[in-house]
Amino acid sequence: MTDLSGPLGPVSGPEARADGVDDTLDISGILKEGPDTDFGHVRKQGLAALTLGAVGVVYGDIGTSPIYAFREAVRPLAGDGLVRAEVLGILSLLIWTLILIVTLKYVLFLLRLDNKGEGGILTLYTLARLAIGKRSIPVLLLGIAGAALFAGDAIITPAISVLSAVEGAGLVLPDLEHWVVPVTLGILLALFFVQKHGTASISLAFGPITAVWFLTLAGLGLWNMAANPDVLNAFNPIWAGQFLIEHSGVAFIVLGAVFLAVTGAEALYADLGHFGRKPIALAWFLLVFPALVLNYLGQGALVMARPETISDPFFLQISEGLLPFLVLLATIATVIASQAVITGAFSMVQAAMQLGLLPRMTVRHTSHGQSGQIYIASINWMLLLGVVWLVLTFDTSSALASAYGISVTGTMVVTTILAIIYLVRSGRLSLFWTLAMALPILALEVAFLASNLTKIVDGGYIPVFLALCIGLIMWAWWRGTQFILARVHQQSVALEGFVKSMQGSSVHVIPGTAFYLTADPTVVPSALLHNLKHNRVLHSQNVFLTVETLRVPVAEPEERVEWQALHERFSRLTLRFGFMETPNVSRALPKARRAGLKFDVMTSSFFLGRKRPVVDKDFGLPRFLDSLYAQLARMAADPTDYFHLPRVRVVEMGEQVKV
Fold it and tell me: Which one of 204, 296, 533, 542 is most buried, by most CB atoms within 10 A?
């Protein structure tokens, strides 16, 4: 296996990253910061189009929360009937959670912390890692934890979103109540099966449809508020404080349900590179935030006027004649939200591979015009299996809500901690002001996390278990690659000395160009040593090709290719890609000609050095981690496909390495 993606940090020598089966490379990322996160490909569209697109993609998940969030928040109090103070208290909690978590933390603050326009948990980990300037295992573990929790959320979101929407059909036709689960599974199966064909063509409709959804939410809220405008008092945070004090016994449970209102907030940051800060912020302030608040207020007004609607206040907001329209629109909105989560999972996995946290997987671009449209088959089918299992296990969205929230709150806590580390170590804010701004948000998120942890026995163990499994895979892969590299480095031959020794060599020279892929440009690739040892030949031109993954999303054109002549028969070629790009060697090689390299692809060969890890420990946790790493190495995608090499011109040479 040959993975030439970048390491987890700018390191050198035996600490640089290997794939676990090949030579490795050392990179130091380039961090470019600016006040505005719009960059390159974002500016190709107008502000209005980007804002509308952000409505559909960025806010699809959080936009479906009104279907179940208020219902689950009032459920613990529904037994003895709701009173005015309780409804106002819950509404106040919902409103101020949206203000503090989404508006303050994400829209106004985190969207300004970008890496060349890109955002997300792994981007923030990268920023914190670079700000520290050296490898930090605690920061690494935070990055792994955040990514693993985000992946767990990607499995639960499609299940609860679509299930909650389809349940509304039971209010239209009660006989369909027994078909809720089959219909939900049918929708989800169709959604995952179309992923391989790409969604670029239909994604253009996501924005307008979701905009109609938010306008509908706002309209329903205003309609129900008209009969009871008293709910506007919920903007006063005193009601939230009084509720928490007077209902201390049940408040902890209610907080866990209230947090359902902000699930999907991570998408604001993760999709920063697709839309830019301004469109995301405009979409939030002009449409999404007002629509969410109005709908929650409308649901509160409804249950105060008609307590019997507490069973499903969202769908009972509307008249019976218009209910089918709302159910259909809600179903479409949840499918769009699920699509956004799936796309986000693909992007996160791609970034994790490039940062050395996951083994190489085949990434297929499904759109020629949109760089973010990718498809990873193995991740798609694993997500599908997880989603189907959740639907069959929990049956209802209310039951599934118990499993929801832990992964989201965990990711948010990790995000806040990484932001604190970055701001302090980078010098962008002093320690005092950083803590003054971040600690209140962190305390609130920790409270939400603690309240969600009470759901462990009711299904909350599922996202925790999923995150632990994914995190263990990431740690085993990172640990294995570091060990392999250290072992290989001990046996390496310095490139400079080797080139000098070959100047007067009598080795047989054959015509053509040999590209030797190597991740460490300072040592001789093992494939070249094996070629000399077994075939006893040397090509007339030998190019040591290194593919670097920069710690920026997209490599600049001027830094894409670097070529250096070492000797009349030897040269060094470096191709650079951003961590959000798929390394395409075939497409980048023509640019090497402009850098000075002369070659004919018809007389060229590409040599890969495969190193197969073999477990050398007898028992215990180290053996388990090594065995897991070895298995992951065998499952990794073919390097020829991953790096887009001309398959008919690839030569592989391998050896076993003990771990």
Answer: 296
- Asked if residues 235 and 433 have their Cβ atoms less than 8 Å apart, the reply is no
Dihedrals φ, ψ of 594, to 5°? -70, -20
- CA dist., res. 401 & res. 459, Å (int): 9
Q: How confident is the model at residue 106 (pLDDT cuts 50, 70, 90)?
A: very high
* pLDDT tens per residue, range 459-491: 888 888 888 999 999 999 999 888 887 777 777
Q: Directed axis angle between helix 377-394 and helix 180-193, to 10°?
A: 180
Q: Give ∠ CA 34-38-42 in degrees, rounded to 5.
A: 150
HSE on the CB side for 4, CA within 13 Å?
Answer: 31
Q: Which of 521, 447, 533 is nearest to 251 (CA)?
A: 447
State the Cα–Cα distance between residues 150 and 409, nearest whole angstrom: 10
Q: What are the residues facing 548 on neighbouring strands?
A: 576
State which H helix or E strand residue 150 sits in. Answer: helix 137-167
Q: Cβ distance 22 to 480 under 8 Å?
A: no
Q: Could you tell me if 529 and 557 are in contact, meaning their C-beta atoms sit under 8 angstroms apart?
A: no
| pLDDT higher than threshold 60 for residue 16 | no
pLDDT at 354: 81
Hey, where are the domains in the chain?
31-459, 489-658
For residue 75, give Cα distances in angstroms to 72, 258, 588, 611. 5, 11, 58, 57
Which of 202-216, 418-432, 491-505 is the least confident region? 491-505
Contacting residues for 89 by C-beta, under 8 A, at least 6 apart: 239, 240, 242, 243, 244, 247
CA of 585: how far to CAs of 368, 571, 575, 577, in Å?
Answer: 17, 17, 8, 10
First to last CA, the chain: 15
Helix (H) or strand (E) holding 341, with range, is helix 323-354
- Tens-digit pLDDT profile for residues 587-612: 888 888 888 888 888 889 999 877 77
| The predicted structure's pLDDT at residue 462 | 85
The radius of gyration of the chain from alpha carbons, rounded to an integer in Å, stands at 27
Tokens, residue 656: 């076993």
C-alpha to C-alpha distance for 269 and 285, rounded to whole angstroms: 16
494 burial class (0-12, 13-18, 19+ CB within 10 angstroms)? Answer: exposed
* Lookup: tokens for 169: 């059909």
Q: What angle do CA 94, 301, 244 make, to 5 degrees?
A: 40
What is the longest distance spanned by two Cα atoms in the chain? 95
Mean pLDDT, residues 355-377 taken together:
76
pLDDT of residue 367: 62
Q: Put residue 231 in one of left, alpha, beta given phi > 0 → left and psi -120 to 50 → alpha.
A: alpha
- The residue assigned the tokens 């790493």 is 629
Amino acid at 612: R
In this model, does residue 256 exceed pLDDT 80? Answer: yes
CA nearest neighbour of 510 among 486, 541, 481, 484: 541
pLDDT at 653 over 70: yes
- Model pTM? 0.80
What class, spelled out in words, does domain 31-459 have in CATH? mainly alpha
- The CA distance from 92 to 230, in Å, is 12
Alpha-carbon distance 120 to 126, whole Å?
A: 10
Give the pLDDT band of residue 151 (cuts 50, 70, 90): confident
165 touches 331 (CB < 8 A): yes
